[in-house]
Amino acid sequence: MACLLLLMMLTACAASPQDLSGKMFTFPEETKTANVRLMTASRNFDAVTVCLRSITDLSRNHALFSLATKFVSNGFLIFKSPTEDVITLIVNGKSINFEVQDYKRNVWHTTCSTWDSASGLVQLWFDGKPSIRKFTGGSNITEPSVILGQEQDTFGGGFDVKQCFTGMISNVHMWDYILSPCEIQRYVDNLNFTPGNVLNWRALNFQIGGRVLIEHEQLPCL
Ligand SMILES: *[C@@H]1O[C@H](CO)[C@@H](O)[C@H](O)[C@H]1NC(C)=O
Questions:
Q1: What distance in angstroms lies between residue 212's CA and the mean position of ligand 1's atoms?
Q2: How far does the signal peptide extend, from start to end residue (predicted)?
Q3: pLDDT digit string (tens) for 24-51?
Q4: Ligand 1 atom nearest to CA at 42
Q5: Which burial class, exposed, middle or buried, applies to 138 when counting CB atoms under 10 A from its CB (0-12, 13-18, 19+)?
Q6: Which member of 76, 79, 172, 186 lies 3.0 to 4.6 Å from 67 by CB, making a disulfide possible if both were Cys?
């Protein structure tokens, strides 16, 4: 009984979410191991919004947000394509390219993407600018494995050093519904917004593998 209680406490401890406000994940080297696994609050989605901030100096392709399911490794993937100023969004294995303006290196960028299965439309908001809305279709995303820093070619693994992310990522939120344009604007402007109900940067359940650091965001001096 005492053993069981201890086990329950340990499990609760391991699962206790952290408030990462003012912090960022630093991915300081190119490896096929460094990654952060994010535990989602729910496991069946018919709509998704993901927002995050990131900075990198990579010019090759790299994953910004990799969600795999047992059925499809690219369940919901935000991917910087090797083509200049193109971000690829893959939902349920179907890939859509978005032309963005100025995916500059060594600059913090905000990326939000939305999808819902009812309309089958995806949209990308890059630095607060909405793309056109494109059709991808798709059915529910279930039992997700979400990873930052690496691109999953299999469920929870299959990392490729040539697709890994180096740089910093912060403010990751995921909702199981579509945020309105005004709510997205509030996120982009760092105003008060409704935090993600699936992934919440202020109460994040995660597990770090390899060399990834939690550091304070480097803000400009006043
Ligand atoms: C799809 O997801 C929605 C929202 O979670 C749920 O209400 C619905 O039952 C799901 N449909 C299937 C076929 O799993």
A1: 34
A2: 1-15
A3: 999 999 999 999 999 999 999 999 999 9
A4: 5
A5: buried
A6: 76
Q: Which residues line ligand 1 (CB under 6 A)?
A: 44-46, 140
Mutate to test the pocket of ligand 1, among 43, 46, 174 (most ligand atoms within 8 A of CB): 46
Domains belonging to the chain, first-starting first, are 2-216 (2.60.120.200)
Which has the closest alpha carbon to 39: 67, 59, 4, 62? 67
Please tell me the distance between residue 197's alpha carbon and the centre of ligand 1 in angstroms. Answer: 16
The pair of three-digit structure tokens given for residue 112, joined into one six-digit string? 């939000």
Distances 186 to 2, 74, 149 between C-alpha atoms, Å:
48, 28, 26
Q: Could you give the count of Cα atoms lying within 13 Å of 110 in the half-sphere of its Cβ?
A: 16
| Predicted pLDDT of residue 2 | 54
* pTM summary value: 0.92
Spacing, Cα 44 to ligand 1 middle (Å): 6
